[in-house]
UniProtKB/TrEMBL annotation:
It comes from the Bacteria. Belongs to the peptidase M20 family. Zn(2+) 1 binds at residues 70, 81, 181. InterPro entries: Amidase_Cbmase, Bact_exopeptidase_dim_dom, Peptidase_M20. Keywords: Hydrolase, Metal-binding, Zinc. CDD domains: M20_bAS (cd03884). Binds 2 Zn(2+) ions per subunit. Allantoate binds at residues 206, 264, 277. Gene3D superfamilies: 3.30.70.360, Zn peptidases (3.40.630.10). Zn(2+) 2 binds at residues 81, 116, 371. SUPFAM superfamilies: Bacterial exopeptidase dimerisation domain, Zn-dependent exopeptidases. This is Allantoate amidohydrolase. Its cofactor is Zn(2+). It comes from Streptomyces beijiangensis.
C-alpha cells in the first residue's frame, strides 16, 4: 500500500506531499482508496460531502464500527499524517480476516475529504459538513488562492456540490469511530511506547495583537523619544514563551505584519498573531491573560498602545470516556500499560466526537516532527499500530 501511495502528489524538489483537496493528486489518492476497497470485496461509496467509505457488512444496519483518517496533506507535508490511519485500517482488516474473526457489527473504513484545509483555509471540511459544523452557505464561500470556490473545485473533480450538507442519518448509523494517527509530538518517544490512546484535543485559539506606536526616522529620533512598537512586540514574544513554559502549555507568534515596513523607519504599527494551546481551559486562560498583561505593561513603558482581539477559539474536545476506557481495556489485556495522552492538533475525530462516540490511537513519531517531509514513524511501530487497531476493531465489532 505504501509503495502505491508514495509517489502520489510528491514534490520532487521538497520531498514533501502536496495533496490538496479536489486536485489531481487528491483524485489519485481517492482512486487508490477505491481500488483498496474493491480489491477486498468491500462495498464502496462516497457520501454527500465527498467522503469515501468502504463497508464490510450492511451500511444501513446501524451501530457500525468505523475507522479511517484522511489522505490529503498540508503544503509539503509528510507521508504519515493521514495516510497512516487509512493504510493501517485496511491492514487491520486484513489482519482480522487472517485471524478468522466473525463480525457482529458492520465495519467501515473512511477517508475524510479536505482534513488539512490546505487549499480553502478551513480544516476538516468533510467531517465538519457531515457533522453540521460547517453550513452550506459558509462552505460555498470558501475559495482557494486562485479564487476557485469549493463547489467549483468539487464539480471539476467530478463530484456533485449540490448535495453537500449535514448528514445526521449517516452519522447516526455509526456506533464508534476510531482514528489511528501518527503522533505529532514526542510524548510516546519520551515514554518509550509504540502506541497510545488519545484523551483529548487541547483547547486552542488565535489572538491578534496590534501594537500601535509612532513612525519616525531611524537615524534622527533619539532612543528616549521613540514609541517603538517592535520593542513591545519583542517583549511580548518573550513573555509568551515564559508564560507557556511556566504553565506547560504552548504559545507561538508565527505571523507578523509591520507598517510601514521600512528598514530605516521606526514602525507605526506591528501586528502579531498568537496561537496558544494548553491541556485544559483554565491553563490556557492563565497563559493568555499572562501574555496580555505582560504586553500591556511593556507597552506602557514603550509608549505603545496594545490591543488584543481573539480571532478564533476551539474548546477542549474530550473523547468519550467509555470508549476510551474500552480501548485501554482491550489494549491492556496482557497487563500492558497503554499511555493516554492529549494532543495539541485537530483531527476529524475531534469534529465527529460531537455526534459519534469517538476515540483515537497514536503511533510513535521518534522526532515528533509533523507537517514536514521529515515526519516519520518506524516500521515496527507502524506494525504495532496495525496490531493495536486490529485488536480494538476485534474487541468492538466481533463480540
Ligand atoms: Zn492528520
Amino acid at each position: 500500500m505504501w509503495r502505491e501511495l508514495a509517489p502520489i502528489g510528491r514534490n520532487a524538489g521538497s520531498g514533501g506531499y502536496r495533496r490538496y483537496a479536489w486536485t489531481a493528486a487528491d483524485a489519485d489518492c481517492r482512486e487508490w482508496f477505491k481500488a483498496q476497497a474493491l480489491s477486498r470485496g468491500l462495498t464502496y461509496e462516497t457520501d454527500r460531502n465527498g467522503n469515501q467509505w468502504a463497508w464490510l457488512g450492511d451500511p444501513l444496519a446501524g451501530d457500525a464500527v468505523v475507522t479511517g483518517s484522511h489522505l490529503d496533506s498540508v503544503p509539503d507535508g509528510g507521508a504519515f499524517d493521514g495516510p497512516l490511519g487509512v493504510v493501517s485500517s485496511f491492514a487491520a482488516l486484513d489482519e482480522l480476516r487472517r485471524r478468522g474473526v466473525e463480525f457482529s457489527r458492520p465495519l467501515a473504513i473512511s477517508n475524510f475529504g479536505d482534513e488539512e484545509g490546505a487549499r480553502f483555509g478551513l480544516a476538516c471540511v468533510g467531517s465538519r459538513l457531515a457533522a453540521g459544523q460547517l453550513t452550506v452557505d459558509k462552505a460555498h464561500q470558501l475559495r482557494d488562492g486562485d479564487g476557485i470556490s469549493l463547489p467549483q473545485a468539487m464539480e471539476k473533480a467530478g463530484y456533485d456540490p449540490g448535495t453537500i450538507g449535514a448528514d445526521p442519518e449517516r452519522l447516526a448509523r455509526i456506533g464508534a469511530f476510531v482514528e489511528l494517527h501518527v503522533e505529532q509530538g514526542r510524548a510516546l518517544d519520551l515514554s518509550g511506547d509504540a502506541v497510545g490512546i488519545a484523551s483529548a484535543i487541547w483547547p486552542h485559539g488565535r489572538w491578534r495583537y496590534d501594537f500601535h506606536g509612532e513612525a519616525n526616522h531611524a537615524g534622527t529620533t533619539r532612543l528616549v523619544d521613540r514609541r517603538d512598537p517592535m520593542l513591545t512586540y519583542a517583549g511580548t514574544v518573550l513573555a509568551a514563551r515564559r508564560e507557556a513554559e511556566l504553565a506547560g502549555a504552548v504559545a507561538t507568534f508565527g505571523k507578523i505584519s509591520v507598517e510601514p515596513n521600512g528598514v530605516n523607519a521606526i514602525p507605526s504599527l506591528v501586528r502579531g498573531w498568537l496561537d496558544s494551546r494548553a491541556a485544559d481551559q483554565a491553563t490556557l486562560d492563565t497563559v493568555i491573560a499572562g501574555i496580555e498583561q505582560a504586553a500591556k505593561e511593556r507597552g506602557e513603558r514603550d509608549g505603545v498602545d496594545v490591543r488584543v482581539t481573539r480571532e478564533s477559539f476551539t474548546p477542549v474536545v474530550e473523547f468519550e470516556h467509555a470508549l476510551r476506557d474500552e480501548l485501554a481495556k482491550i489494549l491492556g489485556k496482557d497487563g500492558a500499560d497503554v499511555p493516554v495522552l492529549g494532543t495539541g492538533a485537530g483531527h476529524d475525530a475531534g469534529i465527529l466526537s460531537s455526534s459519534v462516540p469517538t476515540a483515537m490511537l497514536f503511533v510513535r513519531n521518534p522526532t515528533g516532527v509533523s507537517h514536514s517531509p521529515a515526519e516519520t514513524a518506524g516500521e515496527d511501530d507502524c506494525v504495532a499500530g496495525v496490531g493495536a487497531l486490529a485488536d480494538v476493531l476485534e474487541g468492538l465489532a466481533c463480540r
